């Protein structure tokens, strides 16, 4: 009977433990979590979501405070088009976060940064280019392109000296998306080093519509693996979304996946950036406490706990401090919804916005509890304490359970 430890993820001549811990923002996939994953021989992710704020919390910089002060005059203005990110500061924040993480790296694994195309930041092309180039400057092992097709992203870093050295990969949810990406980037003569195929049971934003339940990871994965093989592309394909046990992982590895990407079980790791009380909410969740809704301003459906305080919260848009989802014209779907409700309640009191949420502020404050489909099973991975709380687990414990378990068994902590 095979275990995950019987397989290896290969990049060229080098081999790694085939476990990738996904990039959960905002600093939920902390540097500590990524470093522990790399130490154990796998691939860990940090996220560059809201990296200015992450830098402030990690290094005591004042990037968010300074930006708020600069645009204070615009706080009550419905038009956010003037709110811009200073690209030099964005570069510095990224280099600090990535650089400090890479300097602390030990072990034989790798650390990647998860880079979301949907963080348009009122300058989609410029801000994305700065984030990717700065991560490469700071020595990141690789970049995983997420939250969008990234058809032009490779081109934004094609002139960087590490363009053909760092591992570059893309997340897709269909073979068609991969075909489109390859076709659009053929002129660069630079294929992805890996492809993550994310199924409909993943946490957070989904690459599907509200018909997500009609799809399944195994089918999509088989289609992508067949395409890669038929085209003789020699690109490792990594399965993601709903892989809860080591036995789940083995089933995908045996079917041709080069590795598996997991995240849900690591949300309750001690190294994870979620506050301790929120981790307990994840543990307590039942299956009917989880929903897929459309409140994200990105336009993607998103899976979360129904008890998330962000749902229905009519908080004033705080783009002057954050504004990571502002499009190139300074618009955001939440701002539109908020202004609609403000027109109905001009006193600004008792405003509830049900159709969208202020993703930046709510994620920064850990009030939007995105989660994977199997979050309700987390309580079965640990022990209940005498006070009714659940025992938190170390990333090493979770990682090793994936690595060695058989027959869908889950090793409880001592």
Automatic annotation (TrEMBL):
Coiled-coil residue spans: none
Keyword Iron: no
Keyword Amino-acid biosynthesis: no
Keywords assigned by UniProt, alphabetized: Dioxygenase, Flavoprotein, FMN, Oxidoreductase
GO molecular function: dioxygenase activity; nitronate monooxygenase activity
Highest taxon above the source species: Bacteria
One family name in Pfam for this protein: NMO
Entry protein name: 2-nitropropane dioxygenase, NPD
Source organism: Rhodoferax antarcticus ANT.BR
